[in-house]
Write a structure and sequence with these properties.
The structure is a single chain. The protein has four helices and no strands. By secondary structure, the protein is mainly alpha-helical.
């Protein structure tokens, strides 16, 4: 459960500052929580796998958002044109 708590804390920190380092920590802790969940007794395993799955979904969504933020930061003019084109379609 410590790995799951680390995933939640790192995810919360990423939400606050959108720094890629915290997203990487959240992803690593999520993987650790998923692996450790498989070692738990069957009664506790279901909840642990469910929480690790939710954390994994968060990491995927946050990763997509981080990629968009990186694109905006590195190439704002092209991103602006793309958004304007998508908005007028």
């Amino acid at each position: 459960m410590l790995a799951a708590a680390a995933a939640v804390m790192a995810g919360a920190r990423w939400l606050r500052g959108s720094e890629v380092e915290y997203l990487v920590i959240a992803a690593a802790a999520t993987v650790a929580a998923g692996v450790l969940a498989l070692l738990l007794p069957s009664r506790a395993r279901a909840w642990a796998i469910a929480s690790a799955s939710v954390a994994a979904v968060f990491c995927v969504i946050a990763g997509t958002a981080q990629r968009t933020l990186a694109t905006i930061e590195s190439n704002w003019p092209a991103y602006r044109v793309e958004v304007a084109r998508d908005g007028s379609a």
